[in-house]
Amino acid sequence: MKIEIEKKDLLNLIGKTLNIVDKKNTMAVLVNVLLDADHDRVKVFATDLEVSLTDEVYAKVIESGKVVVSTKNLFEICKKLDEGKIQFIKKENNWLEIKQGRFSSRIVGVSHEDYPIFPTYNPQYFLKMNALMLKEMIDKTIYSVSNDETRYHLNGVYFEINSQNNCRMVATDGHRLSLVNKQLEQLKHNLTSGVIIPRKGLFEIKKIIENNTGTIEIAIEGSQFYLKNESTVLMIRLIEGKYPNYQQFIPQKLPLKILVNKNEFLTSLERVALLANQKSKAVLLNLANKRMEISSNNPELGEAKEEIEVEYSGSDLKIGFNARYLLDVLAAIDEEKVLIEINDHLSPGVVRPNNDPNYTCVVMPMRI
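Request: output the structure for the sequence above.
Response:
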């Protein structure tokens, strides 16, 4: 293999793979990327066997061929080079020579035959979806994904599209739940069964579509979720298992309703939570007519409280919450006003934007 490639094109190509290659994987070869040069294109392949990515850019291919080298080493070396063309030459024993001007280096590679067989993709049908919509849905749910590896079916976001073209994402860790609905514009699709997309795959989706304000394409086939964004194709192995009946965790017709300014509530919580128990992050909400006092108490650190105005006319109520859970919800809400619905101090509360019924968050209370 012998090629010439622009530095900016190479860094953009390799940069997409940096978070995919698994540094802790028992298969040492997975810290590498596979570069395949042919017909004036260089294709990159990266996988950790759970998430896989392929992409390509233009390059002057003098000799076609394949090379497998360390992702991090390749990226770090090329990042320090000057703008302009970089030359790659594959040497004996799978070494890769990198040249630019008076600079020359060689890095150790491995045989491309030792690289895992890359997942093939040939879904019969791709669904077009607005990239900003998909990113928003991920942002509104991913923080509720469980970190408990023993509950592997909760280590991702449940994704489904029903026959009415309503797209839904749900995440829960048993202490909180986030649900968001969006209506798709495309009328025809075949993605009617729900799947569980793992957390790492969702972060990679966000990274790939971050600067896209147009459309992307998605498909589900077998145990794989596919996303196409221009020349990039991301393949994510879905989590096996049955997602719980999340509808039963969403309380209905809660009698006590609190309307609060989102930014005031968020900044007050941040200040008061600084002196909360570092593990539980417990804060107490003391509700009375048109006011809410937020307080925390930690014998090792001290105590804090702050009062804000709210629209509330129910009976006096004290209820405890994990401040981190409330802060995550508030950070994901774009509206000025937030509606909090409660039954009593022992029952889960519902938090949602005041004028958006399509986003619902359930948070379990704490005993304080």
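The first strand starts at residue 2 and ends at 6.
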